[in-house]
Design goal:
The chain has helices at residues 17-26, 72-88, 157-176, 184-190, and strands at 7-14, 33-40, 58-64, 93-95, 99-102, 105-115, 124-131, 197-202, 205-214, 220-223, 229-232, 236-239. The protein is an alpha+beta fold. The strands form 2 sheets. Strands 1-2-3-7-6-5-4 form a 7-stranded mixed beta sheet, with helices on both faces. Strands 11-10-9-8-12 form a 5-stranded antiparallel beta sheet, with no helix packed on it. A hairpin with a 5-residue loop joins strand 9 and strand 10 (220-223). Helix 2 (72-88) packs across helix 3 (157-176) and helix 2 crosses helix 4. The longest helix is centred in the last third of the chain and has 20 residues, at 157-176. The termini are far apart. The structure holds biotin. Biotin binds next to helix 1, strand 3, strand 6 and strand 7.
Amino acid sequence: MNITDFKIIKLDTVDSTNNYLKTIVKKGECSPTIVISDCQTAGKGTRNRTFISKKGGLYLSILLPPCDTRFITPMTAVAVSDSVEQMSGRTTEIKWVNDIYLNGKKLSGILCEAVFSENVEKPYVIVGIGVNLFLPKDNFSTEIKDIAISLYDTENDDIKEKFFNTLITNFLQYYDTLGNKTFLEKYRNKNFVLGKTVTVVFENKKTDAVAVSIDDECRLVVRFDDGSQKALNSGDVLLKK
Ligand code: BTN
């Protein structure tokens, strides 16, 4: 696909760009669309968390035709990471499964949601991407100021436009070759959890384990103290301090 295949909607403010696309899919408007907003009043993160979205960040969602959703999040993480490196020369790392880090702080998060519509077997996919591109004028909120980082200090519309175009170009390149998993090697290499002791949350229990690898399905393989291993699909992984 090409960027010209998408309808692009630019907003000043919205509750959530993901919700905006969900609403239009429910109305039957399912053509490829990208919505980008200067800020969000109810930005959503994974696991029902809030994604604070002040002006200064890049908040966008991409509506894709029904497809295999398994690899969209990791693929998008690599596309964001590549874009940051191409634009700024700075190296980013990925925290399995959906966070991009710069200098040990969170720069970007991804929230993919599947939306079913009548007469289609596979769901439409909404890929929500939030990047702390610029530092908000009044700084990050207290809750996140020690754990978040922006790529640039001062807002600049040209940089924002260029970053948007770079990101969509990278995203579509990986998307077009999704079956070949062209993103996978970078995804593995950029992940900073491998080799670390992590706290794995599954079945409402917290257990320590060592992250040993990322398998071909992009699951995180962890080894427990008793030597057993488990490939995690969606268990949250907390890094130890
Ligand atoms: C996370 O860090 O847990 C995921 C954050 C995803 C944020 C983006 S911003 C654009 C899109 N709209 C939302 O409400 N969330 C995603």
